[in-house]
Design brief:
The chain is built from 16 helices and 12 strands. It is α+β, with helices and mostly antiparallel strands. The protein has one domain: DD-peptidase/beta-lactamase superfamily (Beta-lactamase), CATH 3.40.710.10. The strands form 3 sheets. An 8-stranded antiparallel β-sheet has the order 2-1-12-11-10-9-8-7, with helices on both faces. Strand 9 and strand 10 form a beta hairpin. The chain is globular, with a radius of gyration of 22 Å.
Length: 424
């Protein structure tokens, strides 16, 4: 079993001291001594610069070994990987191929489909809009969508935006996901919920959704007068410099540097066509991004771009709304798992290495669409984040977060006792 270890404060102090001297933009690979960034750090503190470069190389080598092994064993075709610490992007790079049929390599700017990682953008956007008074998580859905009905009138009047974005509306598991995948507009799907029988009162039961969750984008558009694509672009993507983001099928088809999805059949990966599913429901699974983009997103979530939005404004998205039962989900098998909840577009986990260790909170989500499989995990207390984008539905996704967490821990722990010999 793979293990999720809680990084000690001492280790992270070393990381912060070293990485904080670097620029906010690391290169797509480890930083070469001749780079502008390295030169800048050397002027500040030559010893710290050399230590930083050494650790970058060690981390790069360890990640290369990890992902090359996964490629050799046939577990994955390619991966886009981001690791952030503090306000620095430590690694934002690619491993393997964009397509099994070609030699084109994945790099930090290779675009993947995010699938349900898109839900995290929706939750943060809604929290941001709430902070400005443009809407409220307690707003009723019928206030914005009067044609919506789910169950009887009394039940319909109880359903709030908070229920929709936390999968607690009382809708059966994956209600009308088939309509989303058929390309029907969310506004039309909203009028069809009178055909569905609730399984619980709103707010009482967690039941994962795509169609119901997507009503959130209709609410946000009604509240602001702007389409959710415009809201995300103007509020986050542009100011954060997330230059490879897109939210439609046409843009993905035009993208030259794109990871092709794959399906595993008879122990071989086979490339698949890029489909147009979920672009009607952007917030449920219709966002495309690169590893570099996701690194910038995680850095923002950790509070390092207050000029874009304050941590206080967006943290409501990470407040637990509904607890999960321990039903043996893959993230509940990570070592030290205590409990899991759902916020708004995010899973909120708590882990503890030992009975005397501090409890670590993790903001997490997985995503899959069109045979892409992705994972993101943000550790606010440790000011740390990992995102892995895969162009195949691989079992590696179940353990890649604790695997990489351990790799980072080991690299920086070793470095605390290594003396760097100055170059001549």
């Amino acid at each position: 079993m793979q293990r999720l270890k809680i990084l000690s404060g001492a280790i992270f102090l070393v990381v912060i001291l070293i990485v904080a001297t670097a620029s906010k933009e690391a290169s797509n690979t480890f930083i070469e001594p001749t780079s502008t960034l390295a030169s800048t750090v050397v002027i500040v503190d030559k010893a710290k610069a050399e230590r930083y470069l050494f650790q970058q190389k060690k981390l790069r080598d360890a990640l290369t070994t990890y992902f090359e092994k996964a490629i050799e064993t046939g577990d994955i075709v390619g991966a886009g990987v981001s690791i952030v610490q503090g306000d620095s992007i430590v690694i934002s790079d690619g491993f393997g191929k964009r397509s099994i049929k070609e030699d084109s390599r994945v790099n930090g700017e290779t675009v993947f489909r995010l699938g349900s990682l898109s839900k995290g953008f929706a939750g943060v956007l809604a929290a941001s809009l709430q902070s400005e008074g443009k809407l409220d998580f307690d707003d009723k859905i019928v206030t914005y969508l009067p044609e919506f009905q789910f169950g009887d009138d009394a039940n319909t009047q109880k359903i709030k935006l908070s229920h929709v974005l936390s999968h607690t509306s009382g809708a059966p598991y994956h209600s009308f996901t088939n309509l989303v995948e058929a390309g029907i507009s969310v506004s039309t799907i909203a009028t069809r919920f009178d055909e569905v029988t609730p399984i619980s009162e709103p707010g009482q039961q967690y039941s994962y959704q795509n169609a119901m969750f997507s009503l959130g984008q209709e609410v946000m558009e009604k509240a602001t007068g702007e389409h959710v694509k415009t809201l995300l672009t103007n509020r986050f993507f542009k100011p954060l410099g997330m230059s490879h983001m897109s939210m439609d099928h046409e843009s993905l088809l035009k993208e030259e540097n794109v990871a092709i999805p794959h399906r595993r059949s008879r122990n071989q990966w086979k490339p698949l066509p890029l489909t147009d599913k979920y672009y009607n429901a952007v917030v449920a699974g219709g966002i495309n991004a690169s590893a570099v983009d996701m690194a910038k997103w995680m850095r923002f979530l950790l509070g390092h771009n207050p000029e874009v939005s304050s941590s206080a404004a967006i943290h409501q998205a990470f407040e637990p709304v509904i607890s999960f039962k321990n039903n043996n989900k893959y993230y509940q098998r990570w070592e030290g798992h205590l409990k899991s909840s759902y916020g708004f577009g995010w899973r909120i986990h708590e882990y503890q290495e030992t009975e005397t260790s501090d409890i670590e909170t993790v903001w997490h989500h997985g995503g899959s669409v069109n045979n892409y499989r992705n994972e993101i995990a943000v550790f606010p207390k440790s000011d740390f984040g990992i995102c892995v984008l895969l162009n195949g539905n691989s079992k590696l996704a179940r353990t890649v977060i604790p695997d990489l967490y351990d790799i980072v821990k080991n690299v920086y722990a070793q470095k605390t006792t290594i003396e760097v010999v100055e170059k001549g």
